[in-house]
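Predict structure. Chain length: 199.
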Amino acid sequence: MAAEKTTVTADQALKFLEDGNKRFVAARFDNAKKSDARRAEVAKGQKPFAVIIGCSDSRVPPEVVFDQGLGDLFIVRLAGNIVDDAALGSIEYAVDHLGAPLIVILGHQRCGAVEATVQGGEAHGHIPILLKAIQPAVDQAKGRPGDLLDNAIRANVALVAAKLKGAAPILAPAVQEGKVKVVGAYYDLDTGKVSLLPG
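Prediction complete.
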């Protein structure tokens, strides 16, 4: 039996996220989708209206930042909001099986993973894998006017978005056919505001 898919459009999904972020910034939370009744409802199945590719940073939980409830968001989080093969498979599942029409890559101010890549130096364990994935964004940001770290964070979001838009065999056709929208966004740690990035 196929999973029941969401009927929300990408533009509606984006509006839900923007409205939720406004509530978060104003500290006026909507608890309707965080209730016992909602938990019982989504226990039967999920129909998330958006996929959020976020950083693992503890200060940027997407459900809170966008003031969404149980079953609303399909979250994929790795330090530096990178996308490896396992993350890509998770995103493809959300789009192909659950019908999520919107993918948001959420970068954030003062990202430690991007900062570590900017600073360079020796890293231990599996951390070099993260830094290698982020390095192209740092290389792209070098020489641009403004703050190198902030420019690299934004470039990283753009590169991940481009990667997803071209990811065969599932995401690229869905984007080309207008079934899925991929957008980049930036979270300001100081204000709590999420801004959409160009592209």
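Summary: The chain is about 45% helix and 15% strand.
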